[in-house]
Specification:
4-stranded antiparallel sheet; mainly beta; single chain; about 40% strand; YaeB-like fold; globular
């Protein structure tokens, strides 16, 4: 999470939603969008959850 806050491009493009990125943190996955000045965290999900259903 700190890497995202520092602006490091560590996330990968998310296949489920256009414009979303995903970033793995331990056993969780952070889904976020990037704007010009901010990073908007959409949702944090456990890696075992059905992502398509909850995103």
């Amino acid at each position: 999470m700190e890497a995202l806050a520092r602006g490091e491009k560590a996330g990968r493009t998310c296949i489920v939603r256009d414009g979303y990125f995903r970033y793995a943190v331990g056993s969780h996955v952070v889904f976020y969008r990037e704007t010009e000045y901010t990073i908007d965290v959409i949702r944090v999900l456990h890696q075992r959850i059905d992502i398509e259903q909850h995103l």
